Amino acid sequence: MYKPSLRTIFLLISSTLTNIAVADQVVLDDGSMLKGTVKQVANGQLIMDTAFANEVTIDYARVSQITTDKKYLIELDSRDRIVGQLSVDNNGQAQLTNTAFGNVDIDPKNIKNVWATDATKPQILAVQQEYQDEIETIKADKEKEVEDIKTSYETAINALREERNRLRDPWSGSIAMGVTGASGNTNRFGAHGRGELNRETDAERMNLYMEINFQKEDGEQTANQKLAGLSLERDISEMWFARGSADFEIDEFEELDLRAIAAASLGRFFIREDDLKFKGFAGLGYRFESYSDGTKDKDPTGVLGYDIKYKMNSKLSLFHDLTYYPSFSSPGTNYLIVTNFGGEMPITEKEDWKLRASLRSKYNSQPAEDAETTDTTYQMNLVYDWE
Predict the structure, then answer these.
(1) How far is residue 114's CA from residue 128's CA, in Å, rounded to a whole number?
(2) pLDDT in tens, the chain (387 residues)
(3) Is 43 exposed, middle or buried (0-12, 13-18, 19+ CB in 10 A)?
């Protein structure tokens, strides 16, 4: 069996240690020394792969010596290119060795670029990378542009579908219900309800309503009021519209058998936005009133009013309207003012069920005998809307 000699083992160990020790070496102007693998010199920087810090970048102006263990492609400030190995002789002179021209003395300060013989020039790589980055940026911008167009398209289509559905079925409505009660020292029961039916198209709005308010206290009736009405608006232009209305009221405790007011007026939108509508109107009408004592009052009347609907946010909407009916015969002493104020808030995800709080006030300058001039009603109702 063959046994290697001690000399052979020594040579193998020496060869291995030599291969391990071989590495590129960089000496800086302060005497610091770095060992590793030179990746490249470009744009005034030297990039070196080291064992202790992985890849490091050094300002090439600080480099005083470079030695490499393999050939590199070296470009000088003169634009000359030489393939060779960087080294330093015994006198400290920097050289390029193993070149086609033999050994060439050089000044490290004249080296502009260094890169591996099988690699692309760093500046070309940088341009290629910049070009690739620009392509990726353009691609991302185009994808975002396409996505934005797609989103805008879907939004427009959904809006058109909603508008189509609204025009296909312009009817909507609501039912409001409320109950109050008390027992003990005072037995009280009250109920109120209101139903509305609406029809709205691009140029026309119609509203029908009916309301009943009833209350009993200690077995005696204390409120019995019935209201009904109709209004129709047709646009003349984007901001102007013609309006016709008829309102009816029966109130036992006001001794009112019937109050009927029919009016025609011209109206204008001062604000007409999705979340805020503010309009006013003025015109002429006729008021008829019949009381329990047989008294009847018939008189041409004026009509002047405004209507505000404001959607504050997705959870709260407010409304307020006021209408003034002055008598033609004595507008300063015989008139009627009706105002409503309130708000509603959805309580379900579909927003079909809501809570509505409202206040209705009516001022009659010439009420029936034993009746108050001001009649105010407060309500808290559960409302169901449908469209």
Answers:
(1) 18
(2) 445 554 444 444 444 444 444 589 999 999 889 999 998 898 889 999 888 778 899 999 999 999 998 988 888 888 888 888 999 888 888 888 988 888 888 888 888 889 888 877 776 766 777 788 888 888 888 888 889 998 899 888 888 877 776 666 788 999 999 988 777 777 888 899 999 999 988 899 999 999 999 888 887 888 889 999 999 999 999 999 999 999 999 998 888 999 999 999 999 999 999 899 999 999 999 999 998 888 898 999 999 999 999 999 888 999 999 999 999 888 889 999 999 999 999 999 888 999 999 999 999 998 877 778 898 888 899 999 987
(3) exposed
| CA gap 195, 199 in Å, rounded | 14
Q: How many CB atoms lie within 10 A of CB 349?
A: 7
Q: What is the DSSP letter of 61?
A: G
Is the pTM above the cut of 0.85? Answer: no
Q: The tokens of 81 are what? A: 């290119």
